[in-house]
Amino acid sequence: MIGSLPMLRGLSGFSRDWLKSDIPAGLSIAAVGLPSAIAYPAIAGLPPETGIYASIVAPIAYAIFGPSRLLVVGPDAATMTVLAAAMGTIVAAYPAGTPVDRVAIAAALALGVGICCIAAKLLRLGVLASFLSRPILVGFFAGVSLSILVGQISRFTGVKIESDGLVPPLVEIAGKSGLIHWPSLVLGLAMFALLWIIRTFRPKIPGPVVVVVLSVMLSALFDFQGRGIAVVGDIPSGLPSFSLPALHQMPLDKIILGSAAIFLVSFGAGIVAARSFGSRTGEEVDANQELIGLGAANIAPGLFGSFPISVSDSRTAINLSTGGVSQAAGLVSAATLIAALVFLHSALRILPIPALAAILAMAAISLIDVHELRKIWRISRMEFIFALIAMWGAISFGVLNGVIVAVAATLVYLLRQTMFPRDGLLGRIEGRHGFFDLGRHPEARPVDRAAVFAIQGNILFYNADYVRMRLSSVIKDLPADTRCFVLDASAITQIDSTGAAALDAVAELLGKRSITFAITDLSEESRGLLTRAGVIKAIGAQNLFNGREEALRALIGDFDQPGNASAGSAV
């Protein structure tokens, strides 16, 4: 019955036998998720219970509407950092002295992110997941991680830090060194060192679980709160309740912009993670379908007083490593956290803040993918530069503006890749089939009385001048006996009006030299545009051909065709 409901794909074909795997997996997900659920809200200045609420309602919503069996959603450090920046902008828009409900703002942003997901699904914009390239994301998250690390200074030291950015907080804490609460700092550093040791030796029990249990025990034994070490404090023991944020009391323009920024980063990173795990399990990831699951998983926290979420790397990895086979594992995790909220709230109340800072600091370090940065450096220096630009944007301009810098860097990178399309004059190699780039193959010889030129890219407004100047330069250097210029358009999929004007100028230049301009393998769309622009009339419809050989036979008559040229074409 469950399998017949399209909204329950993650539970499709459910069998009771699966519970033998899904129950242990769900318990493990809850054990790993509880520390981060309590710690991550602090990044955005939210109470810890909001993280638990998100970890309960989001997996339930995803189990109902999500397409994947194995992905687990929940609080995410990078998403929380973008959320914190968006909330900072929204709070700053309120008049001075006006009471601000940060939880309501976070819930409104969660609803906004969910609506963005649903709208993107309806518009089939799953391709947005690929909009932020892998190098841009790696660099951006490295910058985000440094922002998170700096944000933990006050939690480690007990000193209130009022400055923002990367360097100013360091300068401020140096100037306030006399105010440092050393027991807090020692505890935080000790828990961080413990996490590092656990990360190095990789025992079966996750590090954050060890730190939470140990720090709670120490807090109970030595009365950390009485010794001046900050603790989490009271956590509501009840279940999350349904409520709608008062949107009419908020600056909606900033809510919309903040939601869009969070959506872009969380969805882009979430799909990268989903595809990474999908490649290991063989599960196909459809970005458009994931938009429905992630949309529901964000709307649910928005309706229950929490904040935006994304695909959780750590929770999904635990699910896979412990043998989870369906979304029942996520439901078991949610049920376990409900039990923890009801029965363990008194223990969580004395959890020391420096221990949470250690968990956040370790999570931030895990966002810095040094291996991937080295790989990008090895593969492409240009892409590495764009990764650094994204990192610099997140650090220098703040996380929210860093999103804009990352998007701008992506656009610049995309334009850079297409602004200078590869091209070249083609010739023949004796005894071999096909056409070959004269610049790459010294043994190739140009075709007598003809020039064959290939462009591997589109001719659009931003590169039309470059293409025109490149063609003009080649034409000026042609031998005096050249009778025809054949443009191979097989790799040109798009031409706009500016590109048409560039080709018209080329046709005029060739006409002055009495050289016939021919185009081969022109797409129907491009042919229609060039016809409307008058370019086809200028060069003559009879000079459009289906292949280079056909063009050369028609234009120079005695062209020798040794074989199937298309098999050996190379530019």
TrEMBL record:
Domain STAS: 440-555
SUPFAM superfamilies from the UniProt entry: SpoIIaa-like
Membrane topology type: Multi-pass membrane protein
Gene3D superfamilies (UniProt xref): STAS domain (3.30.750.24)
GO CC entries: membrane
Positions of transmembrane segments: 21-44, 50-65, 77-97, 103-123, 135-159, 179-198, 205-222, 255-274, 324-344, 350-370, 382-415
Key words, A-Z: Membrane, Transmembrane, Transmembrane helix
GO biological process: transmembrane transport
Matches recorded under InterPro entries: SLC26A/SulP_dom, SLC26A/SulP_fam, STAS_dom, STAS_dom_sf
Entry-linked PROSITE patterns: STAS
Main location as per UniProt: membrane
Localisation per UniProt entry: Membrane
PANTHER family, per the entry: SULFATE TRANSPORTER
Record protein name field: SulP family inorganic anion transporter
Organism: Rhizobium grahamii
